[in-house]
Each structure stands twice: as C-alpha cells, then as structure tokens.
Amino acid sequence: MKAKRSSTCLGFATVVVKVIILTGLVKEINGSDFRISEATIDEIQRAFAERKLTSTQLVDFYLERISSLNPILRSVLEVNPDARSHAKEADRERTDPVLAPSLGPLHGIPVLLKDSINTKDKLNTSAGSFALLGSKVPRDAHVVGKLRRAGTVILGKASLTEWYGSRSLIMPSNWCARGGYAQNPYVDSGTPCGSSFGSAISVAANMVSVSLGTETDGSIICPADQNSVVGIKPTVGLTSRAGVIPLSPRQDSIGPICRTVSDAVHVLDVIAGYDPRDEATHSASKYIPEGGYRQFLKKEGLKGKRLGVVRNPFFNSYNGSLAIFIFEHHLNTMRARGATVVDDLEIPNISIIQNASQSGEMTAIAAELKLSINKYLKQLISSPVKSLADIIQFNIDHPDLEKTKEIGQDLFIGSEMTKGIGEEEKGAIKKMEELSAEGFEKIMRDNELDGLVTLGSDAATMLAIGGYPGMTVPGGYDQSGMPFGILFGGLRGSEPKLIEMAFDFEQSTKARKPPPPHYM
C-alpha cells in the first residue's frame, strides 16, 4: 500500500573495469564516446550495436554505482551474484548471426525487481522482511519469466516499505527492516514515498535503467512522482500478479519504473499479457492492442485529446508552491500541443474516496491481506513462516531485527482477526465499485474525456479502488528542489491514450533533471 544495510544482503561487488568511470562514460579504442548515465534503452541498444558498449560493461557500471551510492540511498537490498555471467551470455547472443536478428529492445538490459517479485535463483524474495529471508519460491513470477525470455539481466532486488506498509499505520514510508531508511536522491529531507521506493530511487540515481514495482494504492505512482521518474500502474490484470507477494487481488498491479516514457513502454510491452495462473489477466488481456504499446509513442499524442483537470483536493498539499505555477505552464503547453483542457472538474464523493476508512478500502484489504498472504506462503517450497499469524509471532520473537516495538503490527493484527470475505467486506467492495462508477467513471464519460491530468500522486487512490491505470511523468521541482510529477489517469484499458499523452508531454517539456552531482 501507499505510505507516503542489511547484514544479510549479498556483498555489493566493486568491479574495476578500465572502460568504466563514474561519470558513466565508456571510451572505445576508436575514440567515440557513449555516456551510460541517463541513457535510454534505445540509446543503449545503439551502443551495443555499434560495439561501444557490452552488457557486461553495463552491469559492471551499475554494480559500481550500487557499491558507491547504496550505503547512502539504501535502495538496493541485494545484487544477483550471477548478473555478470548472464550479461556475458547476452553479449555472446548478440554476436550470434542466427540469434542476433531476433533480439528485442530489452535484450542485455539490467533490471532491478522490487523485493516482492519471485525469482527462482540465488536472490531472496522477502517483502523487505527478515521473516521471509531464506524462503524458497516454486518458480519465477510470470513477469520475471517474460523478462528473462526477452533477454534481460536480473541485476538484483530493490528495497521497499516492508510488507508494502501493510504492517502498521505508523510505519515510515521509507523504512525496510532489511534495508533500513531509504533516502530521496534529490532532497535530503524529502521522502522517497512508498512502497516501491527502492525501484524508483535506483532508476533516478542511475543505479539501473529499468525496474519493476508493484502498486495496490499509490505504490508505483507516488515514489515515481517524488523521485522524478516515470511510473506506469497498469489496469489491474494487464500484467500478471502470479508469483508476486500479494496484498489485494482487486487492486494489485505490476508495472515499470524507468526514466523515460519510451523505456517504460518497452517494459510494458514485454510484461503485459495473459497468464493462466492469474484469472484477472483473462479479462484484462482483451485491452492489449495488436502490435503492442510502442506504436503509441507519438510526438503529437496530445493533439485532439480531451483532458480533464481535477484540482480539489489533489492541489491542497501544494498551496503556495512553485509546483502549481509550473503546472499552469504545463497546461498551456498541452493546449498548444492541441489538447482541449476541461478545467476545475469535481469528482463526486471525492472526500469519501480518498478516505480508506470511509470508502471501504481498509475493510476489504484487511481481509484480503490475510487470505492472500496465507495462500502465497502455502505455495512456497520452504519458508520460516507459513501464515500471517507466524509473521506476527516472528516479529514478536525478533524485536531487534524487525523493530516491532517502534513500528508496531496493528494492521497485521487487525487483518489476522478477520474471517474472510463476509457480508461486511462484500459491502465494502460494493461501495468502492459504486463510488468509482458514480465518481471517476461518470466524470470521464459525461465530459467525453480521454484522460484525467492532475498534479502529484494523491489521485492514485481514486484510480486504485477501481483498478484503473495511471502514469506519472516528471513535471518539475519545487522551491526546495523536491520533484513532483504530472499524473495521467484513465478508464480501464486506456493505456494507449495515456501513453500518447504522456509521451507528447514528456517530449515537449523535458522536465526531468538528474539528481544533484553528489548522486551522479
């Protein structure tokens, strides 16, 4: 869920490679230069093709970045000890005249995975908790299998708000038992948000170019927003959740976090699709367009679009901020790019939608959490814990490891007391469906909108309870240098339109800047 140095981690490799320097510059014998930092997937692939760069060199660069920056940023829990050997295999495949023509855009690209996404290898999958350390998963998560088949190099596991922040209401959004307190790379006093903060920080600070996050309510959108990167939270079911530590089958979604819209779309093209192990993908797969999503990376993607702007209550936390002034400038840019902007729209019952206690979200997720985690744990080959009750007891037995007294377990205990999806829970789910139909869906259809656009990440909750997609794109920085994003949201299956609008906006504004020099 959104929440606004581990001694067990595998050692971070410090690799001395003559062609790599910390500025991200790879120098070839012929004198041509290529800068890894801030490079897009397409630029990296061109460097591969021109033999200015190898996957092995790229992995070495990222391992060096992790070794240098992770003690401060604490966004990576562990690195894959087999990453270099997998990169070497990718380099070999690229020189194979039979294989080379069929290699896709993610071939040889390192990827960090949120530490709740199963990998059947030497990496842990622990949701950031010591309680699951050493557990054995039966297979790769479906999305990981698709990434491997696309030729990516699994670089390691990114930190997260432990158990997605579902353990306690007072859990800090940037805290993980295994990883400690994470740091926003832009502003020392700024929050990186949660729960996919490790995935967002690592991409922002050029410790990797591609990562995967998960979202139940804001957990991709918020950290992407506050770390100046692009995040896509797909329509629920567009990407399989099989093999991912669950929270809510109604709301969980897996999506990319990258530095550019085009990079995120490359990843979405690979990970989206039907999976018999996740029934939600059966209905959602109908939304996937023939030819994939890259075709919607259009420079005139805003032309002819109708965009609705919702200010209340999403602008409240920005009162007096430079961000509002910049947002107004961005709206003018969208108009100039051919979009019709329908301003000052109001979502019916938005105060109830945004309140998890009143909307029914907290009631439903409390029951779903227990059912989902218990089901996941039973599927493991081996695990120190077999149920939510075991996790609670583990935390009681290991207060120093899990900081149980400081963090608490109130949400876990409340979930353990639930008895499944009863009448109260069914009523809560029905209420969220009605709030969505009479709120977001109604305003979209009544105004014939292609998408909603707003400032920051607070609208993520409205999108979450209805299973709607959202994309956040870097929008700028406030007076303190803290990043903020521009959020595009739409109805289920509207990813093509969101990509068109987000890509045009990104290319027209070029708002993203790298972190300060001490993180570069």
From TrEMBL:
The keyword Transmembrane is annotated on this UniProt entry: yes
Database matches in Gene3D superfamilies: Amidase signature (AS) domain
Pfam family, one: Amidase
Domain Amidase residue range list: 58-498
Coiled-coil region: none
Keywords: Membrane, Transmembrane, Transmembrane helix
Protein name: Amidase domain-containing protein
TM stretches of this protein: 7-26
InterPro entries in UniProt: Amidase_dom, AS_sf
